[in-house]
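User: Hello! I'm new to structural biology and keep hearing that structure can be predicted from sequence alone. Could you demonstrate with Iron-sulfur cluster carrier protein? Please show me the input and the output so I can see what each looks like.

Assistant: Of course. The first part below is the input, the amino acid sequence of Iron-sulfur cluster carrier protein. The second part is the output, the predicted structure written as tokens.
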Amino acid sequence: MTLEKADVESILARVKVSEGETLGSADMIRALVVEGGAVRFVIEAPTPERAKQMEAVRADAEAAVRAIPGVTSVSVALTAHGPSKPAPSLKMGGHMQPQAGPMKPEGVKAIIAIGSGKGGVGKSTVSSNLAVALARAGKKVGLLDADIHGPSQPRMFGITKRPASPDGKTIEPLHAHGVTLMSVGAMLPEEKAVIWRGPMLMGALQQMLMQVAWGPLDVLLIDLPPGTGDVQLTLGQKSQLAGAIVVSTPQDVALLDAKKALDAFATLKVPVLGLIENMAVFTCPHCGKDSHIFGHGGVAAEAERLSLPLLAQLPIDLDTRVSGDAGTPVALGDGLMAEAYAKLADRFIRGGLV
Ligand SMILES: Nc1ncnc2c1ncn2[C@@H]1O[C@H](COP(=O)(O)OP(=O)(O)OP(=O)(O)O)[C@@H](O)[C@H]1O
């Protein structure tokens, strides 16, 4: 019998939260994914305080789903959103304000940028999963989605809320899956393309770094736009970056662009901490045969040529794509990809970078 999402939904909806209130009636289930026998979902409490009291509900929900015939694994994340807030009255963009010293938010120990030469190679996917894996390893992690032209982190973290700016000066960041998050995408309607360039963009970036109440962080990851444009230039010149990571697929054209990104970081004197090869191999779920859809070995060879570490080789993985789209990064779970990201996070921690 195939496991149907609707069946799981209706069982979850009946799990009791408090007297007269269920997960269904309180509308707390988010990002439910059913794949074969694997079930993943998020319980979203209305406030962080409420979430702290809901561990028993989380356990009940997990047990209820596990008891459904055909279920082989269950992964539940308990998160909270703050009280709903009005849209920020903050004006975004504009010329940078004079600033003493490089841009580095107070209380943030290190800033690491994640870039790519070409779009669509999985830079945002890697950023979100690395952030989640570092948070799972006990680090205080922030993620700034600086991909102004195609912000995707709100979707990858399942966030639809907008950040608040009660005083019109500081911006309160969002929180999901243990990560403190800020994105220009969260400040604008999703379908609105941002066509900022030059000064507007620099002003917006300065606001994102310096006006967001990031709080104390071990690391702030910055998901850069692809290529080598204004954002890279501003960040490289004006902020204090501990280093950058470059994500590429093994495909020649992506690699060529990755080389340009590496050159740009070298010019800006931003140390490159290593390369990540994404979509390295596809293992057929039916016959187990490996296919190198985007080529083979190119990123490893480039890393060797430049004497840079190859930090990870991540396969093409359906779960990674589906989880990203569902707002629950695959690193939250307990499969092979979650392990791969945990290993990547561990490399950063052992290397003393985070
Ligand atoms: N290892 C992977 N296996 C399968 N799908 C992946 C993998 N990495 C990324 N994807 C998928 O590829 C698509 C592009 O990924 P993503 O948005 O992370 O790329 P990007 O480099 O940040 O793109 P952009 O430049 O547009 O921001 C997404 O649908 C994502 O889910």
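User: So the tokens describe the shape?

Assistant: Right, they're a compact way of writing down the 3D structure. Reading them back into a model, for example: The chain has twelve helices and 15 strands.
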